[in-house]
């Protein structure tokens, strides 16, 4: 048995096969649709089923944070199972209070069990979706091989200090309501046919460019990614329900970089609530930020 347990949350968008193969513990974000509560990954395992609800509901679904109690229960569970370390990788702390819940749970566990030979690491991914899910999967591979916990933590911190997302939503409805794009910018963008390139870097989001028309999206994303990627490092393609643009991005990015994507991953409920499902994006390893 590995001595280090790797844990994350469902906004990491880790494919189910990786979750099983590398024994990753994934906590599901609670989702509210109408008057009903669901849990990401437990409910809607087929992501298109959630997209259907997302676009058909009169009120946009919401998600809540993972609670301190849920973290405490997991810490107790894996300590009692004999693990010596637990690494929890959290969705960007600037976008969710889940990080603080995990920190409080860690403090409470350590106060309740001063005798425990069990070290808990809480890491802020400072990003979203498979931009941190990829690193979690790699960390879980290392844990299975018996890699020292400090080496795993160092790998994760290096990735989180350099990972960048370049993405475009073809509809601004959800980005506007989540605050990723202002209402005024969304109105003007829709009126003029402008699509924003949204970046998520070091915990912050920005809009470094706007392109006119759908045809300009993929070339612009590829241009940004090629300019900022550290040569020969892995990259990931993100997508939702737009398979045509996904396929164009896969082809054009490989042509520009010279090697295929490490993974091609569909976004889940938590991410699509905030930006919509009609999007494509590229995750790269850029320059170190710290």
Automatic annotation (TrEMBL):
Keywords: Lipid-binding. SUPFAM superfamilies: DAK1/DegV-like. Pfam families: DegV. GO terms for molecular function: lipid binding. This is DegV family protein. It comes from Massiliimalia timonensis.
């Amino acid at each position: 048995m590995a001595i280090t347990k790797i844990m994350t949350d469902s906004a990491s968008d880790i494919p189910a096969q990786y979750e099983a193969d590398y024994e990753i513990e994934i906590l599901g974000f609670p989702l509210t649709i109408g008057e009903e509560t669901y849990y990401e990954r437990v409910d809607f395992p087929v992501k298109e089923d959630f997209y259907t609800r997302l676009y058909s509901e009169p009120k946009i679904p919401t998600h809540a944070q993972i609670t301190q109690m849920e973290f405490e229960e997991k810490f107790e569970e894996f300590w009692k199972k004999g693990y010596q370390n637990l690494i929890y990788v959290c969705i960007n702390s600037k976008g969710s209070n889940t990080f603080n819940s995990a920190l409080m749970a860690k403090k409470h566990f350590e106060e309740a069990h001063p005798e425990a030979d069990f070290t808990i690491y809480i890491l802020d991914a400072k990003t979203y979706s498979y931009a941190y899910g990829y690193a979690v999967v790699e960390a879980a591979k290392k844990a299975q091989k018996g890699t020292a916990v400090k080496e795993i933590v160092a790998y994760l911190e290096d990735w989180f200090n350099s990972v960048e997302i370049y993405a475009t939503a073809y509809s601004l409805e959800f980005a506007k309501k989540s605050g990723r794009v202002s209402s005024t910018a969304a109105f003007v963008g829709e009126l003029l046919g402008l699509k924003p390139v949204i970046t998520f870097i070091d915990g912050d989001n920005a809009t470094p460019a706007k392109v006119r028309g759908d045809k300009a999206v993929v070339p612009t994303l590829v241009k940004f990614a090629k300019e900022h990627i550290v040569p020969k490092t892995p990259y990931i393609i993100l997508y939702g329900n737009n398979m045509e643009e996904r396929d164009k991005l896969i082809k054009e990015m490989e042509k520009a970089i010279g090697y295929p994507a490490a993974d091609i991953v569909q976004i889940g409920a938590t991410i699509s609530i905030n930006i919509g499902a009609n999007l494509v994006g590229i995750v790269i390893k850029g320059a170190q930020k710290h």
